[in-house]
Amino acid sequence: MIVLKDIRKAYRTGANLLQVLKGIDLEIRGGELVSIMGSSGSGKSTLLNIIGILDNYDSGEYLLDGMLIKGQTETESALLRSKYIGYVFQSFNLIGFKNALENVALPLYYQGVPRRKRNELALAMLERVGLKEWAHHLPNEMSGGQKQRVAIARALVADPKVVLADEPTGALDTRTSAEVMALLTEVNRDMGKTVLIVTHERDVAAATQRVIYLRDGVIENAHLDPRGLSTAMDGVRVTNKPAGDVRP
Amino acid sequence: MFDNDRWGEIWNTLSRNKLRSFLTMFGVGWGIFMLVVMLGMGNGLKNAVLGGFEGFATNSAFMWTMPTTKPYAGFQKGRFFTFDNEDVGIIRRNVTGLESCIPQLQLGGWQGGNTVTYGNKSGAFSIYGCEPAVLQVEAVRIPQGRFLNEADLRNERKVAVIGVEVVQQLFGGQPPLGEYIKVNGVYFQVVGVTKRKSSAEMGDNPDAKIYVPFTTFQKAFNALNEVHWLTLVAKPGVDVADVEKQVRLVLARKHKVDPTDEGAFGGWNMQEFYNNMNGLFLGIGGLSWFVGICTLLAGVIGIGNIMLVSIQERTKEIGIRRSIGATPKAITGQIVQEALTLTFIAGYIGLLAGVGVLEAVRRLAGEADFFKNPGVDLFVALVAFAVLIVAGLIAGLLPARRALAIKAVDALRAE
Question: What angle, rounded to 10 degrees, do the helices at B4-16 and B328-365 form?
Answer without folding.
Answer: 70
